[in-house]
Structures are given as C-alpha cells and as structure tokens.
Write a structure and sequence with these properties.
This protein is 21% helix and 29% strand. The protein is of the alpha+beta class and 351 residues long. It has 5 domains: 53 residues, Ribbon (Complement Module, domain 1), CATH 2.10.70; 51 residues, Complement Module, domain 1; 64 residues, Complement Module, domain 1 (Ribbon), CATH 2.10.70; 50 residues, Complement Module, domain 1 (Ribbon), CATH 2.10.70.10; 37 residues. The strands form 9 sheets. It has a 4-stranded antiparallel sheet, with no helix packed on it. A 4-stranded antiparallel sheet has the order 7-8-10-11, with no helix packed on it. The longest helix has 35 residues. The radius of gyration is 52 Å and the shape is flat. This is Membrane cofactor protein. Its main location: membrane. It is found in: Cytoplasmic vesicle, Secretory vesicle, Acrosome inner membrane; Membrane.
Length: 351
C-alpha cells in the first residue's frame, strides 16, 4: 500500500505568520524610538489672526528649527518686529506673535465745515465705521455713516464724506378759513416762525383756531408742527342737576371755554368740577353729577345710607333692652328665691 505524500503548506503558513509578527515588532520599536526622539519637538503653532506660515507646514519641528511667517492679506508688516519663530524645549516656540502685522488703514477723514466726524470703533482701518454730525441749524447732505472696506491690498471708504448745509424751509401750508404771517416770504431760515390766525366768520358763530398757532422752521423743509385748523366749535349748554355754574355763565360756549360747577347744599359732586369745550364739540371731561348726601371716606354715601343705619340701630337697641330686662328679672327672682328654678326656665318664660 503506497503512503500518501505529506503536504508542506501548513509549515509555510506558520513561517509567514512568524515573519509578520517579527516585522510588526521591528516597526513598533522604530516608532517608539522615533517618538522618543521627538519628545522635545514642537508642533505647528495655532493659526494667527494677522499672519500666516510661509512654505509647507510639517507635523513636527526639531529643537532649534525656525519657521518664518508673513502678514495676511489686508495687513502690513510693522518693522522692526520679527516674523521668525524658533522651536525651543518643552514644545514651546520662542518670539512668536502677530503684533508685527497691522490692519491696512483708510485715509483719515476731516471734519466737515460746521460738523464733526466720529470714529465709532476708535480707529479707521478696514472694518471700522465713521459717523458724521452737523451743528445746530445745519443738516447732513450725504451718507451719515461710512465704512472702511478692503479692496485688494488697499482700504477705502465706501462713499464720499457728506457736507453740512444750512437749514431752510419752504413756506408753511395754507389753511382754510385762515392765514399766517409773512406770506410774502418764499424761504425761511432755521427757527424763523409764523403765526396762524382765523378769518372772520360771516355766520353767527366765530371760527376757532384748533391746534398750535405758532410754527417754526425746525429742520430742512420741516416745520415744528402740523398746521392748525379754523372751524366752528360749539359745545352744548352745560346743565347740572342739583348744582350750578360758578363761572363762565352764558349761552354760547366755543373752543376751550371753561366752566366751573358746584353742588347745592345736601349734595356732593361725583366727577371733575371743571370742564373744557373740546375741538369735537363736547365737554372734557364729562359734566359731573351732584348726588344726595355726603361722601363717605370708608365707602358709600352718608345720605343714602342714613335710613338703613337707623333701622339697624333700632334693632340692636331692642335686643339689648330685652337682654337687660331679663337680667334684672333673674337677679330679682334669685334674691326673692321665688319663680323659676333655673336660669334656663327663667330665660324660657321671659321669651
């Protein structure tokens, strides 16, 4: 019987496994050796706002190795600050800072005539803002706020500086049934004023000026108030029951007429004692009321509550009287040792 040949493949696989683990061990020792040699090396420093690294960065830098930086776009190098850093021991970089790079600046703005410029951010480099204001009596013509923006490698303001111009006003509006002073003037200067008045009314009631009679030029083509109105205002005759007028007695009551009231004796007033004729032909506040009695500081009305108090007083007096009579009778029968055998029986007989 012929013997089968023995396969040699398992031995080759065992040798290949041995070679793999030996190679892995050698690589691990080499890596540990490399890391131990880099224990004092430096990693790439964190990014800066104003500068960036020149050339291609590496994972590690040996002690004593130097790197060079340059200013980013929009920044200028300020001499004699160095742009070179050296790797020192304990993973530290020596002399590294971006203070040597400053932002590109816009041209410094001048104060406009009769005005001022204020740098909101305290600087005039790109990203900064400039705000303009004018003196009283002048207005700003142009953009009130400019922004310093970066275009390429230069910084520019995003508009032309404004100017401060004198304030003028066109004539104020005309009104129906009235007029204003200085109708012959076409242009009014700052704070110049006009006075409105109403025309005579051919009818039985006069026109009343409702609104502000004096207007002045407060800004460029801007008057201090809206123009007034001339119209007939007539409030109804004020009637107060159980009261009377103490001022402004009459038959006609026009705009802003004032009436004072008082109540007759035995009545008190609820509401305001003074009313004014308003522009909508009504009294403001509304006419008060005169109520019977006197105001009670604890609430209610003395005059209206008097009858209720009398009834309550009579009831209470009656109860107290009955109790006193019973008490006197009890004392009397106890003294005489006659009558009821107990207080309960006496109380029953009494009631």
């Amino acid at each position: 019987m012929t013997a089968m040949p023995v396969s040699t493949h398992p031995r080759q696989r065992r040798k290949s496994y041995t070679f793999f683990w030996c190679s892995l061990g050698i690589y691990a020792e080499a890596l540990l050796f490399l890391l131990s040699g880099l224990s004092d090396a430096c990693e790439l420093p964190p990014p800066f706002e104003a500068m960036e690294l020149k050339g291609t960065p590496k994972l590690y830098y040996a002690v004593g190795e130097r790197i060079e930086f340059k200013c980013k776009k929009g920044y200028l190098h300020l001499s004699p600050n160095l742009m070179i850093a050296t790797c020192g021991p304990n993973h530290t970089w020596v002399h590294i800072s971006d203070v040597g790079c400053i932002k590109v600046q816009c041209t410094m703005l001048q104060n406009p005539s009769f005005g001022k410029v204020h740098y909101i951010d305290g600087r005039f480099s790109w990203g900064a803002r400039a705000k303009f204001t004018c003196m009283e009596g002048y207005y700003l013509a142009g953009m009130s706020v400019l922004h310093c923006v970066l275009k390429g490698d230069e910084a520019y303001w995003n508009g032309h500086p404004p100017s401060c111009e004198k304030v003028y006003c066109l004539p104020p509006p005309k009104i129906k049934n009235g007029t204003h002073t200085f109708t012959d003037i076409n242009v009014f200067k700052y704070h110049e004023a006009v006075i409105y008045s109403c025309d005579p009314n051919p009818g039985p009631d006069k026109f009343s000026l409702v609104g502000t009679s004096v207007l002045f030029c407060a800004g460029q083509n801007t008057w201090s108030n809206s123009p007034p109105e001339c119209k007939v205002v007539k409030c109804p005759f004020p009637v107060l029951q159980n009261g009377r007028q103490i001022s402004r007695a009459g038959e006609k009551f026009s705009y802003q007429a004032i009436v004072m009231f008082e109540c007759v004796q035995g009545f008190y007033m609820e509401g305001s004692s003074m009313v004014v004729c308003s522009a909508n032909n009504s009294w403001e506040p509304s006419i008060p009321k005169c109520l019977k009695g006197y105001p009670n500081p604890r609430g209610g009305i003395f005059g209206q509550e008097l009858d209720a108090w009398i009834v309550a007083l009579i009831v209470i007096t009656s109860i107290v009287g009955v109790f006193v009579i019973c008490l006197i009778m009890l004392r009397y029968f106890e003294h005489r040792k006659k009558g009821c055998q107990s207080q309960a029986q006496l109380f029953y007989l009494c009631f």
